[in-house]
Amino acid sequence: QEGISHKMTLTGKLFRDAVISGANNIANNRAAVDELNVFPVPDGDTGTNMSMTIGNALPELKAAGDGISAGDAAKLTASAMLRGARGNSGVILSLLFRGISRRLKGMETVGAKEFAAAMEDGVDAAYKAVMKPAEGTILTVARMASAAAVEYAKKGDDIEDLLDTAIRIGK
Q1: DSSP code of 156?
Q2: Which of 14, 15, 149, 162 could hold 112 in an S-S bridge, CB 3.0 to 4.6 Å?
Q3: Could you tell me if 139 and 170 are in contact, meaning their C-beta atoms sit under 8 angstroms apart?
């Protein structure tokens, strides 16, 4: 219908399902991500470490009911990832989620502007934890995706479009 906004927000169920899907995706592509690993040393374990880190959140997320809030889904994810972070890439990934979860605390659903700000908080947390951040790493990808999300949120309010934009720029 014309004139009706179909803006989509992020619910806890969608957040949970997205993390589960992301975990499956990194697990399925672990070897390819391992091959990308050249910094700080080419030890070939980035995909493995990221997969194991996000995998720590799966049992709790799968046990969470569909009625979970976005804030609680983010908190549960970040907490489980921080407890089980593996390697530098796993720690960075968990810190990205920690920043996101802090911004989403207490929120039932999340709009584009809130999620873009949460992405910024995640990037800030990750950069602050790395003593000498190097560009051309996952930090750069997260920063650029976050900046694209913030730019999108200045004019758009659909969480799906925001995430599409962030993913496109991240690639």
Answers
A1: -
A2: 162
A3: no
Mean pLDDT on 24-36: 89
* pLDDT tens per residue, range 89-102: 899 999 999 999 99
Alpha-carbon distance values, 166 to 142, 143, 158, 169 (Å): 9, 10, 12, 5
Computed over every residue of the chain, the mean pLDDT equals 91
- 3-state class of 110 per DSSP? strand
Reading the block at residue 144, the tokens are 């650029």
3-state DSSP call for residue 62? Answer: helix
Residue 128's DSSP bridge partners are none
CA distance 16 to 86: 21
Q: What is the DSSP string of 11-45?
A: -HHHHHHHHHHHHHHHHHTHHHHHHH--SS---S-
Q: What's the pLDDT score for residue 6?
A: 54
pLDDT in tens, 58-86: 999 999 999 999 999 999 999 999 999 99
Q: Among residues 104, 99, 125, which one has the least CA distance to residue 114?
A: 104
Per DSSP, the chain holds a count of helices (H) and strands (E) of 9, 0
Residue owning tokens 């804030």: 71
